[in-house]
Every structure is written in structure tokens, then in C-alpha cells.
Amino acid sequence: MDDTAVVVAFYVLAAITLLSALMVGMVRDLIHAVLFLILSFIGVAGLYITLSADFVAVVQVLIYAGAISVLMLFAILLTPRSGRDNAGVSYSAPISVIAGLVGATIVFVALKTEWAKVDEDRFDTTAAAIGEALLDPFVLPFEVASVVLMVAMIGAIILVRPSEGEES
Amino acid sequence: MIPLIAAWYDFDPFRELYDWLRDNTWDELVYVVIAVVGATGILSFVGLGALANVWLERRIIGRIQVRRGPNRVGPFGLFQPVADAIKLIQKEVLQPSASDAKLYNLPPILVFIPAMLTFAVFAWAPDMVYADLNVGVLYLLALSSITSLAIFMAGWASNNKYALLGAMRVIAMAISYEIPLVMALLAPVLFAGTMSIPGLIDFQKEHDIWLAFLLPLPVFIYAIAATAELNRTPADIAEAESEIVAGFHTEYSGMKFGLFYAVELINSLAVSGIMASLFFGGYSLFGIEEYIPPWIIFIGKIYFFYFGLIWLRGTWPRLRIDQLMAFAWKMLIPLALINVVIVAIEVLLWRELELTDWVLAAYVAINAVLAIGLFAFFFRIITRDYYRLPRRVRLEHDVSVPSLPAPPSLALSQPGTGVGEA
Question: Which one of A33, A34, A49, B300 is most buried, counting C-beta atoms within 10 A?
């Protein structure tokens, strides 16, 4: 694998991801914000590919760009009068401060950490490795996650269900 | 990486070119040349395919509906798509003044990207794979979800209520049909133990069985869900002419509409290709691929399934949105869930007990019986309300409609009007 190509790809993808993430907050139109968010998700997927994590990259596109953003669009469409306005909120100053602090912490940690370097530059079958990891050492968290999702689904069904006697 | 891409060739002149380039120049040039040649091949297949499909589709549907179809321009009307394209290109491009100008021009281009990218992972021949991804099947699924996003953008940017309705229907359908689609494609992946398209085809060649025989239920689920995702006629509620003018592309004129139309045809080819590779052996055809170039067999299979799609389009009425949603949630998703459990058990038995291939024949029989049984069972459930309807008109005496201040002269329980009937 050519090193310069990977470096160029990394910077291009990082620029796409960061700029579109910035636009999510800057754009006035809420639908545009979600579309920029999708672009940001796709940029992150590209970053995964530069790390040869093909499975995670494709799942990122499938779940985040394909499913979660579609849910967001649906929520915006079904919310009356909010469809076109990504308006400022009254407490944007404290939010900006907190976000800035979180960002500073991440940058600080990233600079301080001594990153381990992987010798071989590509893995062959990440999907199989992830599957084995999920079903062998991490089987308990995996099962707990599925139970949590099940509970959420049943809860959603109960919430939207018409109560007794209230047909249709 | 180089051998992966270099394996594209089954054409001897290209193989010689590749050998010459590898021996006489540096590696990067080989990489670039091969990528360009491969992309050109795929793009020209897709482009010419879209043109040919316009003609095929109109002629075959004409045949089905007992009319002639296009037959004036050129022999058998073969140049009709060209004439159509010229007409579309020279048409005036109209853009609604209240449209979302930044978004409006993007979707016709954006829908093309996933449609083209789909063809990158197909195996046209044993060594003719543009990109042999480890996660090929997931990659195809990820692309199909991006198409519906672009269609949503088109509907939203038009700022037209019919377009918006179409966009919302696309999103609703994408959410509903994605689930059975993913779970149907899980079955072949479980059996073959790989997600790469050439790997799946090798599995089918190695065991001398098409996954379609092994997995009849996922084939049907995939076919139905993919037709819905394609927005073709049994399920084209996103552009239902009789309800919402033309749905998401109401406000698109000229070549922008033409692009949406072309993408629909290209996506039909892509779905046929996925069907052929995953369930029907891809380029292999019982050893005939030794004598005929495998890519011709693969294209033949693609067009076989594409003919099926045209047939569906020509003969079936359009479903209503609630029927389509109910079909996904009440029938396809439970079927797909049950199927995943069945297939997982079968694969586990087969792998863990290290049974020989004869057990696959038994699975064929078991799965066929299960598929027919489950389909019959779910059809009974889904049509239960219909069969509970009264078979003949009858009088209902004790039905009261409390909140209706009826004029005294009109009796509520007039027989035959349907007012008082349940």
C-alpha cells in the first residue's frame, strides 16, 4: 500500500468529515443539517477504510448514513413547523463552552497518548474476527445489548398502542 | 492489492497487455491502467444496458398489454431510446422558483453513484472481479440505502406536496423493506460463511448447488423486497401516477427526469445481478462456463431476472401504501426472522457434525416444504380479514350509529347501501 496515497486520502476525508460536521451546526435549514451529517458519516466511513477496517466502514454507511439519518429525516418530516428551522437556542454559549472543552480534552488525550503502531498494514477478514469476538469473549455485552433493544422495542409498541376500548 | 485488481482479465489481449505492463513498467501504472480499463468496461455495460433496457422494457410491456410498443424509429423501433434521449436533452429545463435551489440539482447526479458502484463487486468471470471485497454483500446493502436518501432529497428539494409525499413514501418503504432484505441476504452468507460475492459463487460451484434451491424462502423475500426498493410497478407508490402525479420526480424535467429513469433501469440490472450471483450461481452454469465465456452467462442471467421484473411490471396492479407496509411488517419480517433461525440451525448441524454434502440435498427438500408451509400460513393470516367478510348482503338490526344526527326520512339500515353493515 502506498503511503502517500493513504496520507492524502486521510487528509481529504478528515477535511470532508470536519467541514460537514461544522456545517451541521452552521446551516439554517434542518434538512440541510441532516444531509451534512450524512456526509460527515460517510467521511468517517472513508477514514475507517484507510485503517483497513472494511466491515466497520460498510456498517457505518449502512447503519448511520442509511438507517439513523433516515430516522432523523422521518422525525423532522413528522414534526410540524420544525422542518425548515435550525434556529439558535438561548443557551448556546454554555453549550459552546462545553463542546469546546470536550474537543480540547480529546485533542489533549490524542496528543499525549503513545499510540501503538501495527506492523502489518492490512487485515484480511475483519468481519470474521469481529464475529468471533462478539460470540466468544464479548458474548455477555452482546446479549445484554440485544435485551436492551428488545425492551426498547416493546416499550415503543406499548407507548403507541391504542388503549382499551379506543379502536383504530 | 495489485493481484486483486489484476485478476480482472479474462480477455487474452488484456492479459497480454497486463503481462507486458508488469514486466516493462512500474507497478503503479499497471494499477492505474487496470482500474481505468475495468471502470470503462463496467460503465459502458451499464450505459448501453440502460439504453437497451428502455427499448426492451417498452417492447415487452407492449407485448404483454397487447399493443406494439415503439416500432417507428429504426428497425423494430431500436433507435427509440436514442430519439428519447435526444428529446430529453433538448427539452427546456424548468426549475420551480420556490424549490430548494442548492439541493434541487444534486439528486439526479447523486442517485447515479450507488447504482454504478453496485457493479464494482460483481464477479463476471472467475478472474474478472473489479473489487473483491470481504464485505461485498453488506456493501451492496449499504449502497441501496443511499439511493433512497437521494430520492428523498429530490422530493424534498422540489418543494411540491406531491413530491414530498413521494419522498416520504420512499423513506417509509426504505425503512420497512431494508429489514427483510438484510435478513434474506443473511441466509446465503450463513451458508457460504463469506460475504464476498466471488466467495459465494465459489461455494455454489464447490457444492454443485445453487443457493436458490437450498434457500427458497430468502429468494422470494429478496425478490419482493428488492422490487419494493426499486420503486417498480407492483410497489411504485413513490411515483404512483394515479395518486401523487409522479411522486418525487414531479418537478424534474428534461434530462434530470431522464437520469432518474435511467437509474431505475440500472438498478433493476443491479438487483438482477445480485439475484444471479447470490442465489443462482453467478457466472457458473453446470460446467457450460468452460465453453462459453462466463461473463456472457452472467449477463444472460442478469437479463433473465430483468425479464422477470419487466413481467411483474407489465402484469401486476399497483399496491396501496398501507398494503405495502403491512406486507413488509406482517409477512416478510416474521418470515425472514423464522428463516434466519432455520438456516442457522441447519448450518450449525452441517458444520459442527461435519456432515457430507448429501445433507444439502435433504436441506433442499426440508426448506422447500418449510417455505411452502410458511408462505401458506402467513397468507392465511394476512388475508384473514378478507375471508371474515360476510359472503352475502344481510340485514344488521342492532347496529347503532350514535353520533350521526340522521335526517328522519333516510333510514340508516337501508339494505344494500352498506351503511348499517359491519
Answer: A34
